Write the structure tokens for this entry.
Amino acid sequence: MLEEKILSRRALIGIIGLGYVGLPIVLRFAQQGFTVLGFDTDPQKVAALNSGKSYIQHIPSDRIAALRPPASVDPKFEATSDLRRLKEPDALLICVPTPLNRHREPDLNYLVQTTRDITQTLRVGQLVSLESTTYPGTTEEVMLPLLKATNLKVGEDFFLIYSPEREDPGNPTYNVFNIPKVVGGITETCSRLGEILYGQIVEQVVPVSSTQVAEMTKLLENIYRAVNIALVNELKVLCLRMNMDINEVINAAKTKPFGFQAFYPGPGLGGHCIPIDPFYLTWKAREYDFSTRLIELAGEINTHMPYFVIERTVQALNDRGQPIKGTRVLVIGVAYKKDVDDLRESPSLKLIDLLLQRGARVDYHDPYIPVMPRTRRHQFDMRSVPLTPENLATYSAVIIATDHSCLDYQSLATHAPLIIDTRYAIPGRSYAEKVIRA
């Protein structure tokens, strides 16, 4: 019986997708005494994990190696690309990408293919949990029909739930254990088993009435952030015209002990959720003849921010008698946020693209990303350049796009001839003649 297997830690846990979401879940289940089988289509990732190596900066390799001790014939974790082994786990957790296509419509190809792969081996007693962010109705309308085609009955033969990931890469305070886990199932039995499963690895499980409610919960969380970031991005532009520091305004406002939460502006939205998730709901809303105007307006504001940064850069160079074409520009930070090695949907990629389109000669520096990997939209043949005083002096403009904590901003402010600061990383007004806020 599945419940007994879970409670006795005898259940084999399968994690499909071993990236920034899947790998922390692997570690948490293994830490709690479960054996975990991880699936990924990237053979390099599989080989690295099976040799005890991590490819995610904030997850040390020794945590992976500890699950695969050399003398053990029964390791707590194994990675594989063999999808025929999907029949082995008692619970399958899906952590695959759910991006947007070029028309900003949901691209569920990874999820649909994964579900089809599961149907090839689905057996009685398995629980399937979708963690990937998606629009309300995906679990029931897209996954369930495919799984039911096996002639197994949901809620009796197999169990289907939705439990959205809430991973925040690099966050030192919140992790899989202490972030509450929302769970919604197709049937009551599905929900109960989902609560039992996740109750083994998290402090608090939050049951909801359906998979749709769970799916909408994740979207609300990220739409809330996207809208508020758009608000401060718009106010940043206004404050610049009014000769005010938006960060000073925000920091003063957040001293109010109620009714205000601080959000900070930047060069655009990045990461695997906030730039994407709101458009999942705007797409689904059209099915109900409903226009999500506020969400779409926030998306427009945030999407425009890289263009605003480039406009400020071009104007700053123009004021110094330099054209953007042929000018050397250094972008500081290509990760989507500070102190991580994750560049998914990073606004820095758009900044580099726009600079190249204008004829600039572009380099970047990021201690977390020494070589620029290929992404779905961009392929830059670039490596991180050293951030030395001599090197800084060779660039006409330096754009601070990601404010990593390890960078020496005093040296940067001293040696760079012109700085476009999108993160307000250079404090005070001592370098006002060379620091342009954007």
Residues 27 and 64 are 8 Å apart (CA to CA). The chain has two domains: 2-208, 225-437. The first strand starts at residue 12 and ends at 16.
